[in-house]
Amino acid sequence: MAELRKGPVGGRPFQKGQSGNPSGRRKVPVEVRDAARQWTEKAIATLAEVMANKREAATARVSAASVLLDRGWGKATQVVETPGAGDAIGALHDRMSRIEAVARAAFTASLPPDAAEPEQATLQ
After folding, report:
1. What is the DSSP annotation of 23-83?
2. Whose CA, among 36, 77, 116, 124, lies 20 to 30 Å from 95?
């Protein structure tokens, strides 16, 4: 017989707004980090050898070159384009213009008939 599951079901094991890892990623122990850093110069030399070796596969050479560049100069900035974002901005601008027109009309209608035209500065 199947065992009944307790707790939330359906792909959401945590309450909405609750992190599954509230204390964050574990820190690498200092000893491990220091041991790995001792190999930095040799690792860079190995990457440079792979990159320069014409007998290595092209993918290995490109990968080594990419890692070297990333470590030396930082990763390249990636531009993320959101399709339709320009349309949304244009629609928002149009809606704001309509709201401004309605507000201006309501303000003008609330003035006594003998009042002068409102100045532009009062609504900006």
Report:
1. T-SPPPPHHHHHHHHTTHHHHHHHHHHHHH-TTS-HHHHHHHHHHHHHHHH-PPP-----T
2. 116
